[in-house]
């Protein structure tokens, strides 16, 4: 099976959204996705794109994607946050995730990015094993902190 990894286009966003929803089901959060096709098209392909995306394509469909965006570290400088690396369940175990991962890392080197970072659930053993096998460091002493929109409103009105 021939797989081509390329920069995503606006017309790929329906397939990207399908993969995002598939990941939400896998991560036991089937109703958590709020982003819409319109959001992805506007935010990824507007005047100032908020994210970049690579897709892995077979001869007939998008089999996986890596969506990422720029960040800035006060310690390191330019960094990238990998929001999601997703491979359709029918295509897992065929090296597609590795192809996407390598393309992202190649992009990072070309852009003189000092660090690529992401979050992985501790229960997602296949992903943890994959990342560790590539030499990535998984920190156990840092906690992810978030404020959702409702919590922000509640905080600001308190």
TrEMBL record:
Name of protein: GNAT family N-acetyltransferase
InterPro entries listed in its UniProt record: Diverse_Substrate_AcTransf, GNAT_dom
Annotated ranges, domain N-acetyltransferase: 3-157
Keywords, comma-separated and alphabetical: Acyltransferase, Transferase
Keyword Transferase included in the entry's annotation: yes
CDD domains, alphabetized: NAT_SF
Pfam families named among the record's database cross-references: Acetyltransf_1
């Amino acid at each position: 099976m021939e797989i081509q990894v390329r920069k995503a286009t606006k017309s790929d966003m329906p397939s990207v959204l399908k993969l995002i929803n598939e990941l939400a089901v896998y991560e036991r959060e089937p109703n958590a996705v709020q982003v819409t096709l319109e959001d992805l098209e506007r935010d990824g392909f507007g005047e100032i794109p908020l994210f970049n995306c690579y897709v892995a394509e077979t001869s007939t469909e998008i089999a996986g994607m890596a969506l990422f965006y720029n960040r800035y570290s006060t310690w390191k400088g330019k960094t990238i946050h990998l929001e999601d690396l997703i491979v359709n369940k029918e295509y897992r175990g065929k090296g597609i995730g590795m192809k996407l991962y390598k393309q992202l890392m190649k992009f990072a080197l070309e852009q003189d990015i000092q660090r690529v970072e992401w979050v992985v659930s501790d229960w997602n053993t296949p992903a943890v094993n994959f990342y560790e096998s590539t030499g990535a460091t998984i920190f156990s002493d840092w906690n992810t902190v978030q404020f959702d929109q409702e919590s922000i409103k509640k905080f600001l009105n308190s």
